Amino acid sequence: MISITIKNNLILLGPPGAGKGTQAEKLVEDYRIPHISTGDIFRNAIKAGTQLGREAQKHMDAGELVPDEIVIGIVTERLQADDTQGGFLLDGFPRTVAQADVLDRFLQTEGRTLQAVINIAVDPEVLVVRLSGRRICKQCGAVYHVLTKKEKTEGFCDLCHGVLVQREDDREKTVRKRLQVYTEQTEPLIRYYKKSGILLQVNGDQEINAVYTDIRQGLDGSSRQK
Fold first, then answer.
1. What pTM was estimated for this model as a whole?
2. CB-hemisphere CA count at 13 Å for 65?
3. Which one of 33, 151, 161, 173 has the fewest beta carbons within 10 angstroms of its own beta carbon?
């Protein structure tokens, strides 16, 4: 366990259903840093018509995965924007050790370093229940849950009375596959940052505010797992 000082160059890791989005909102508000997700990066680069954005669009239009070098290029391009100079919260990048190496080298050339990689860990079986229990309103997109946020009239949205459905991505078989892919992809990355001594492990199987309290305590200098 080591002690750390608050800094603002952060990475947020966590499987689907771990509550990363909620925790990211809190971090962004408290630390006043931009939340940079790969999805946002792609959309903004394409909308701005940058060279890398145009290259990414070609692959996406062809139904292909965007090559690693383009992903890295777009991320490092985004990290040179003025609003990142006081810090950033990266979400969805890096996804591999190779990408992490490139990010480290890029930050070194910029005279910047990562201060913490926050990993929100949740038992896979808990995540299966969380995700497979979600129901979405077809009409307005409101989110419900069969256990934690039930609708007043079964099968219908409280807000617009639209029909509630289970997305294909939220079916149990699909959820288990998504979690397996995430684990296989991310375990080497977690080991990489653990070895670097900047990994902050947080128990995500708690109430939202309790999770955030643990994150803040870690960033404020409490224990972090090596």
1. 0.82
2. 3
3. 173
Where the chain has pLDDT below 70, the residues are 1-7, 222-226
Contact 74, 52 (CB under 8 A): yes
What is d(CA 14, CA 131) in angstroms, rounded to the nearest whole number? 14
The total number of residues shown for the chain amounts to: 226
**Nearest residue to 20 via CA among 224, 217, 211:** 211
- Find the helix packing angle between 97-109 and 172-196, rounded to 10°: 40
Q: Is 43 a catalytic residue?
A: no
Residue 84's CB: how many other CB atoms inside 10 A?
19
Residues 28-61 have pLDDT tens digits of 999 999 999 887 788 888 888 888 888 888 887 7
User: What tokens does 77 get?
Assistant: 């391009």
Q: Taking Cα atoms as reference points, which of 83, 163, 181 lies closest to residue 127?
A: 181
Domain range annotation of the chain: 9-34+81-123+176-219
Instruction: In whole angstroms, give the CA distance from residue 162 to residue 121.
Output: 34
Candidate list 150, 167, 195, 226, residue with the active-site label: 167
User: What is the residue type of 168?
Assistant: E
Is position 134 annotated as part of the catalytic site? Answer: yes
Question: Residue 40: which of 53, 58, 22, 55 has the closest Cα?
Answer: 53
Distance CA 57, CA 205 (A): 37
Is 32 annotated as catalytic?
Answer: no
Check 78, 130, 178, 224 and give the catalytic one.
178
Annotated catalytic residue 167: yes
Question: CA-CA distance, 38 to 147, in Å (whole number)?
Answer: 31
